[in-house]
Amino acid sequence: MSDESRASTVRLSSLSNKLIAAIIAVIFLVEIVIYLPSLAMFRATWLDDRLRVGVVAARVLDAVPDVMALPRSLTDRLLTSAGADAIVYRRAGQSQLIELAEPVSPEVVVTADMRQRDIGSLMVGAIDTLLAGPGRTLRIIGEGDIDESLVEILMPETQLRRDMIDYSRNILLVSLGIAAVTAFALYMLVSQLFILPIQRLTRNILSFRQAPENASLILSATTRRDEIGVLERELSAMEGELFSMLRQQRHLADLGLAVAKINHDLRNTLTSAQLLSDQVATLDDPKVQRLAPRLVTTLDKAIGFAQSVLDYGREAASVPVLAPVALRGLVEDAAFEARVAGHPDIRFDNAIAEDVVVLIDAGQMGRVFVNLLKNAREALEAAPQRAGAQIVVTSHLVGADVNVWVTDNGPGLPPRARDNLFVAFEGSARAGGTGLGLAIARELTEANGGQLRHVDPEEGGTRFELVLPVDIHSQ
Ligand SMILES: Nc1ncnc2c1ncn2[C@@H]1O[C@H](COP(=O)(O)OP(=O)(O)OP(=O)(O)O)[C@@H](O)[C@H]1O
Ligand SMILES: [Mg+2]
To answer: Is 429 exposed, middle or buried (0-12, 13-18, 19+ CB in 10 A)?
Structure first.
């Protein structure tokens, strides 16, 4: 994903949008849970109000012996004040009825029995009313104010339904209002506390990644004490470290390039000096004859040093090309190059089995063996006691790897060499040594998927152990 498209994804699915959506969804969910019971209560109150008028009417009916004798105007007023088509009053097995002058004959009658007041049946009644079509007649039943009397009111359901719809609309409007205000307030709070700082961090990471060498892009941390504060400070510190590391690395690379150039010229100058010294050595002058060999070896050493520094510089760039290689042949060649094979005083034993094939870069690992064998030869040559000197290379398979030991019976590693054995320019404890051989050897071995370490053999001398990947197809 390109940086640009990543930045736009960050914008699209931004935290603030998600937050607002979540807040509104939660508020509506809560409103829906509250809505049904409150609608049921609204309906119950509405019906109770109508019943109360019915009870008053019932009291009138109770007081008169014959309802038919009541003036029409009175009964009509009673009915209209209750919004009813008819009111029935029952007591002790008798019932009285008043109804409108032109009584309507209801087609569908639904009963709302207000003696049952549990929330379940109230809610069922509310849903029923809300979903019902027009034209139904409502029969409200309730208790009268005298013992065991019952009041029934018949009226069209339309008015109740209309009031309930109005009530629902109001609730919806109020919910919208609450949701908007709450979402806004919460959004402001959360965005000040979290989203803005996180957006700042995100923007900073994106821009710093584009130009890590620009110190002005390093985040300036705030003094917050919470997790975001820690994140800011850590990020700021990390960017600072990255910035100086990059700068240091660039300086080192520049310096390395300069050293390589100087070294190259130095080597050429030394080589011309060597040609001159070779010519000087042919002069008959006894003084010259005495000094010339020293001059030649000094120049040789200087050229060797310049050459190995150049080699080390070149080494960094080469990527190994892995291929199956017969290990025994590789060691044999390295022994010749290191002037170990055929040495007059040193016995060399290449004890690697014929069939060991490793997956390595032959050129690079050849250099590793040359370095190890050369070190062993130099140590044996420098030892005062040369009799019985020997170098042995052995191998044994361990799983998918082969362990190779390069062992000599020389004086062992000098303590000075042990401390920085594999550190470039540091590990040498030998006059004229550069201290690059083992550093290069380890770097090359690891680049080839292997390991190189020094082990102290019980019987004395020096041993280097290599672990190399075996070529599985050759097994
Ligand atoms: N087989 C060995 N026996 C004893 N000492 C060793 C042996 N191999 C290495 N050393 C010691 O470890 C030191 C570091 O070896 P390394 O090959 O890294 O550098 P060097 O041989 O001094 O210089 P270079 O190889 O760069 O010319 C040597 O100077 C030597 O003292
Ligand atoms: Mg060496």
So the answer is: middle
